[in-house]
Amino acid sequence: MIQAADTAQEVTACDPKEKIGRIPSKGVLMLRLAALLAAFVLLNVGALAQPSSIGSEPAGPPPRDWTFDIGPGVVMAPWFEGGAWYRVLPVPNLDLRYKRDTVFISARDGVGATLVDVAGFKAGPILRYRFPRNDWDGPGLYGTGTVPFTVEGGGFLRYDQPWFAAKIELRRGLGGSNGLVFDALLDGKFRLSDSVFLSGGPRLSVTDSTFNQAYFGINATQSFNSGYAQYYPAAGLRSVGAGASALWRINEKLSFVVFGSYNYLADVAANSPLVQGPAGSRNQFIVGSALSWRFEW
Question: What is the pLDDT of residue 256?
Fold first, then answer.
């Protein structure tokens, strides 16, 4: 991606046909792969809009300029946030990076870039996606209508040390919920061996009234259609919890990871009729695992 841009700058004075011919095939391939992967990530991992981990490189020697991890995964999660019923879904484990996190397109970490990298602090733009929520997406949603798909754009700030990492993200929904989301994560990092790496720590999420109304509120029309009482939540603390993961690097190419998280919905969300009803719960669990094969060049 960056390599192709640099090459294009070098040939701006040439004939347009010569530009096309002189762009390295690897640069063109990376642009196409990045575009396809970004689309695939955005269309398949909306459930991961809330960051589940900080995403530091777990173990082993520093990667080469480009890395691409791919493999199958499975996750068990509630049908909707605030729901008490769970489902198991296959998920893709996809992660494309240039120089670790200079540019990344990841099912776990979203789509973004590191623009500032100073003394352990890193910052840059971030893009995440949240799937539509329909009233047939699990028990308890009938009559509540649809929350359209949401692309959440914003920025992140991360601080990394060998034994811990902290990260905050501020994102605004572009369409869909149109809400504002603030997420904070803190992870302790423990390397049990050269091939086994553990991480985990507390999580916190704060959302504005627009987001909360979209996902936890009940307006007059929804109340009439569903039978729920009307509810208009304010901005506030959405959830607190913890997350953890364990990674086993089986060899230089193959890795296996298991992960899990628990979030306790705060009152602004937990007081929703969706959560208070028989199909709701303020206790939210997610567990999963994934296998990945790494390509480097």
Answer: 97
CA-closest candidate to residue 247, choices 18, 57, 42? 57
Q: What does the radius of gyration of the chain's CA atoms come to, in whole angstroms?
A: 21
For the chain, which ranges sit under pLDDT 70? 1-64
CA pair distance 230, 170, nearest whole angstrom: 29
**Residue 292 host element (H or E):** strand 283-296
Q: How far apart (Å, rounded) are the C-alpha atoms in residues 145 and 38?
A: 28
pLDDT above 70: percentage of residues in the chain: 78
For residue 88, list its beta bridge partners.
76
The predicted pLDDT at position 26 comes to: 55
Residue environment code for 154-171, b if the CB has 16+ CB neighbours within 10 A, otherwise e: bebebbbeeebbbbbbbb
| Residue 200 CA: distances (Å) to CA of 18, 203, 241 | 51, 9, 11
Cβ-contact 22, 2 below 8 angstroms = no
Using DSSP, state whether 10 is helix, strand or coil. helix
Task: Note whether 126 and 169 are within 8 A (CB).
Answer: yes
Which residues have a Cβ under 8 Å from the Cβ of 189 and sit 6 or more positions away?
56, 162, 163, 164, 165, 197, 198, 199
User: What contacts 155, CB < 8 A, 6 or more positions away?
Assistant: 123, 124, 125, 126, 169, 170
Residue pair 97/113 in contact by the 8 Å Cβ criterion: no
Distance set, CA 114 to CA 98, 100, 126, 157 (Å): 10, 10, 9, 9
Query: DSSP characters for 89-157?
Result: EEEEEEEEEETTTTEEEETTTEEEE--EEETTEEEEEEEEEE--B-TTSSTT-TTS--B--EEEEEEEE
Is 45-296 in CATH node 2.40.160.40? yes
- pTM listed for this prediction: 0.80
Query: How far is residue 118's CA from residue 49's CA, in Å, rounded to a whole number?
Result: 27
